[in-house]
DNA sequence: TTGAGTTTTCAAAATTTATTGAAAAATAAT
DNA sequence: ATTATTTTTCAATAAATTTTGAAAACTCAA
């Protein structure tokens, strides 16, 4: 396989994978491109390489920076901004967990808290409260577990999980 | 808060959450409805309750059954099929992990395996191979860890993770 | 075997989400 | 202050995904 074909395949697959992880396809493709880049890329480099508009490039670079998956790098004497990817996979996963926890798990916990206040003593209400309580308990456990995971350092995590792999 | 309002809120939120987890909104809403139901529901009950078409109802029920999140229940003397939700949250999470592993992680591993075969000795190729190798290693570790997680039983998991929460 | 009830299929329509492109704003060298 | 370059914004457009609805297939009792 040629390098260009390999790069192309990797970028496409990373894009598809990302789109299932709350990262849209272009956003993930930019991340993929920067992952396999051996130098910082300007927004224009990225635009050219992926054949996308400047607006799209700009919005997704900023989203990536916001998620902590890409860093801005200033080259002395250069007017343009340059960008590099976070390449430590555990760091990448941690950043994604952090974002999704904030955007999904935490709002869900608030809703569960809220709806657990329903009035009534009938069987339907009791069943509803029971289910909500169960999910609330599970979710807050997951929330704490994820917090700990994120706080823990890379090696500790790998170590703990490796011991699980037998 | 009234029970109906609470149910409605819960169904909507579960729908939104699901849509970030590879489960489309309707599919997650059906699951939510069945979670808080205190009896089996027919496809028609679901259609009526959520105000969706029969086609949509049918497709999403089958997807839920395929994912192992809903079970078909036959009532003696009844012609219709009835459905109940898997209510054990850890079981739900395991099923989702299983599906997503199959649909996302495993294809990615195959692509990584494939593209790691690129030809060439130059710096670009070396950088590419290095990144791919790193991701491949991380991904296969994650894959094994998830396998173990799925195999392990509910209490073992909760126990292990609780000890992490301090 | 017929036919009422039920489930499945799938092309077309509706909805949601992502992308473009052009204009405006910011930046920094002259 | 002027101008060339780069970045940002956002309404319009395009693409992708979901939902519908109507027809076909299936199921089972009579």
Estimated helix fraction of chain A: over 70%
What's the shape of chain A? elongated
Main pleated-sheet profile of chain A: 3 strands, antiparallel
CATH architecture of the largest domain in chain A: Orthogonal Bundle
Number of DSSP helical runs of chain A: 7
In the CATH hierarchy, what is the class of the largest domain in chain A?
Mainly Alpha
CATH homolog superfamily of the largest domain in chain A = Winged helix-like DNA-binding domain superfamily/Winged helix DNA-binding domain
Which structural category fits the helices and strands of chain A? mainly alpha
Give the overall average pLDDT of chain A.
Answer: 90
CATH topology of the largest domain in chain A: Arc Repressor Mutant, subunit A
- Give the distance, in angstroms, between the N- and C-terminal Cα atoms of chain A: 35 Å
Low-confidence stretches of chain A: none
